[in-house]
Design a protein that fits this description.
Length: 203
């Protein structure tokens, strides 16, 4: 207040930069002393109860939140649009809400929560392999593989054919072409499987 009196009587923990902790927009993200986060209004009333491990202010008045390492989305009216049950949540202005599913696929929703696109890709890459053909210097000629790899949720790759059709879920940390019909799909550095160009497992 202008007379120097305390405006809000409760005490909160600082979770953002000091410059970001103001109420000129009518709200402020704060933390409690048991390491939870919420949002208060100018009077100190909770707009979002302090039950979240992480709160991120997104675009257009939306919020993403985390509970037990699972993400969700809150609408501008402070109502839960998607509960905390996703691997990742991102609100992209003009494009919609991107959610990472349990199987690491990405789905895109409109701002009201209706599905727009399933299995969205963040990256698509060609793969190459050393063929059995040699050049004049005696080196093996590198060729582009029949399949490509695509990334959905950050860090997870799947397999698609040359027509853009998905033939495996994005379950792998990496995929490498061994030849035109054999792909080494790695869950971890020490755990792998082989898939053919139809996405079938090779024994």
């Amino acid at each position: 207040k202008e007379d120097g009196q305390r405006y809000i009587t409760e005490s909160y923990r600082l979770v953002d930069r000091v410059d970001d902790c103001n109420l000129w927009r009518g709200f402020c993200k704060v933390g409690t002393f048991d390491n939870k986060q919420g949002v208060i209004d100018k009077s100190g009333n909770w707009l979002l109860e302090p039950i979240y491990d992480v709160l991120c202010e997104e675009t257009d008045g939306y919020w993403s939140m985390v509970v037990n390492e699972k993400w969700g989305v809150i609408a501008p009216n402070y109502q839960i649009l998607f509960p905390c049950q996703y691997n990742m949540a991102q609100v992209v202005s003009g494009k919609g809400i991107i959610l990472a599913m349990e199987n690491h696929t990405l789905n895109r929703f409109d701002f009201n929560g209706s599905l727009l696109d399933s299995n969205v890709f963040s990256e698509v890459m060609d793969m190459t392999y050393n063929s059995d053909t040699y050049d004049k210097k005696g080196d093996r000629i590198e060729k582009v593989a029949l399949c490509r790899k695509y990334m959905a949720e950050d860090g997870y790759w799947g397999l698609m054919n040359r027509y853009g059709e998905v033939i495996s879920l994005p379950l792998y940390e990496n995929i490498n072409a061994l030849d035109n019909n054999t792909y080494l799909c790695s869950f971890t550095e020490d755990k792998h499987i082989l898939l053919n160009s139809k996405g079938q497992m090779i024994n």
